[in-house]
Amino acid sequence: MESKLDKRRKKILSILSEIPISSTQQLAKATNVSNETMRKDLDALSDEGHIIKVHGGVALAHGTTAEIPFDLRAAKNAAQKREIAKAASGLIEVGDTILLESCTTNLELARVLIKDPDLLETLVVITNSFSIASLFDRGTKCRRMFFLGGWINPEQYSVLGPQTARMLSDFHVSKAFLSGAALSRQFILTGYYDADVDFQKSALNAAQEVILMIDNSKFEQTAIYTVAPLSQADYLITDRLLTEDEQAYIDRENIHYIHA
Q1: Which of 48, 127, 187, 225 is the most buried (most CB within 10 A)?
Q2: Sign of the torsion angle spanned by Cα atoms 202, 203, 207, 211
Q3: Is domain 71-259 annotated with CATH 3.40.50.10190?
């Protein structure tokens, strides 16, 4: 029979498969044990080679230098992402210049746009996603497409890095469609990887309107790096029914909330 200790340590590894980098305090709270007990668990898992200590917490030992592969992320909460994408498509107008960052929700948004060729052929699309560029037939299905350059990440089918963020800073777009790794209780959008965060910061500066698309699983989570306060978004599209505090915040900051 599996012991409580074994079950808890399996749960720790399961959490780390969902939240790539977690702190001792987060894991202790999630498993309902003290910080001291969690430190012992993490030391044991580290000695066994399952996890490693990184800046900001701990991570799975295998594949920690890269994000969860794109195909696996696409399968998580797929139905919610499709509904969020459908809602987001309603904000796109004829003649817009739009930024579609590489993320699984934007891939769903691109699939919605493919079904509306009359609108798509009027749009200028800027992206760092090979998947989106391929879906739009290398730009032939939209009015024009600019593919941002940078270091290729084969597991994410995208390019990222400081060069990509700098290149994006040369543009001004009507609307930037962004996803988020984590949104804290303090309404701060955060990320696990510095390249993602640099890209999103450039996107915030480049966009006339910022549309944040984020599913319920990302709420009340905190990653390592700060992107920006939620107040910098113009729209929040989510499958989450907001709490009173969350609704009060977006009302105060004049953020448009769309429930998908």
Answers
A1: 127
A2: negative
A3: no
